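thought: fold this chain, then report.
action: predict
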Amino acid sequence: MAELGYVYNRQAANMRASASMTVGLIATDIRNPYFAELTMAIADSLHDSAYTLFTVYTRDDLDRQGELVKAMIERQVDGILMLPSIGSTAPAIRDMLGTSTPLVQIARHFSNEFDYAGPDNTAAAAVLAEHLASVGRGRAVLVGGPHPSSARGERLAGLTAGFSGAGIEFDADESVPTENNPDGGARGLAELLDRGMLPDIVIAYSDAVALGIYSELRRRNLEPGRDMAVASFDDVPFAGLQMPQLTSVATHPVEVGRVGAQLLIERIQDPGREIQHMLVAPALRARASTVLWRPRS
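observation:
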């Protein structure tokens, strides 16, 4: 076979079998470390089950997402994992998928009609609020995150409930939505400060957003962890390497990816089983950016 230059023909094999042993992952952006870890975990889990993963990115663009869903179906993938773009709706996705291609939502969700794997954002925000209330008093604000998204809405709800009666002033309407990256964090904080707000606590939507918040504070001669407490979500590896080290709630992208891949495999093998929404429990990583902070007198 080697001497003849034989190459296995997957398309020919697909004609003899009902499964292509391929899965599509439609994500928004690989530049965020959280999504990078999530993608790698999905790839590893599917590889262990003999599936090949095709990965594409939408940049949170609905039209591009639609094109990519159709492309995946044309290539006869056995199923799709989707980190949905903002504005995704069940009727639109259902029309594109048809009746034979299963889909699992990852990290964000737009419908209860499809399986979902993601972090427990409400619990993550509540545990962070409890920690912040234990170290001081004052005014807190959330900066960053795309609007509207399920993850941002859940974190706002968790913070609102967690801060209620805890001695920290928090108004969800004062939060500033931005892109989920450092530039978004810097712009969001600049918008708050330019309109005269000087919060005691800045909560970043993600560690990527927190990088921009650190930068903008220092540009204005303010020091994170001293002049303002800064806290965040995700606990990607660089969070503990910042100066001061960044308090963050771990939302476990590796576990989310593993659970999502398993949900899709189960759905492929048993299309009629009940819809499952699986949440991964968070864990607080308290560090100097909040622990050493003291409220302004």
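thought: worth noting. The chain has a mean pLDDT of 93.
final: tokens above.
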